[in-house]
Specification:
The chain is an alpha+beta fold. The chain contains 2 helices and 5 strands; from the N terminus they run αβββββα. The strands form 2 sheets. Strands 4-3-5 form a 3-stranded antiparallel beta sheet, with no helix packed on it. The chain is globular, with a radius of gyration of 12 Å. The chain starts with 6 loop residues before the first helix and ends in a 16-residue tail after the last helix. 16% of the residues are buried.
Length: 79
């Protein structure tokens, strides 16, 4: 289907997210929008800090299927 990625790449994106420190298994797996991550160091904060990005709050299994989506921490990009 146009706009979606193949199964192998989708599974790779899911594994990346599940190993991220701001991933939450709640609601089928989400990128926690109550946490901030430093993409360079992987450090996590509950407060916004310089160099940190906020989790997107998306349901990962849905977001990871779309070519037009990317990880806010730069762990995977738009295709």
């Amino acid at each position: 289907m146009e706009g979606r990625i193949n199964q192998t790449l989708w599974e790779s994106r899911i594994r990346i997210c599940e190993n991220c420190p701001i991933y939450s298994p709640n609601n089928g797996g989400i990128c926690s929008n109550s946490l901030y991550i430093n993409p360079q160091t992987g450090d996590v904060s509950i407060h916004p800090l310089d160099g940190y990005v906020k989790g997107c709050g998306c349901k990962i299994k849905l977001k990871a299927k779309l070519k037009t989506e990317k990880c806010p921490a730069g762990k995977w990009e738009v295709l």
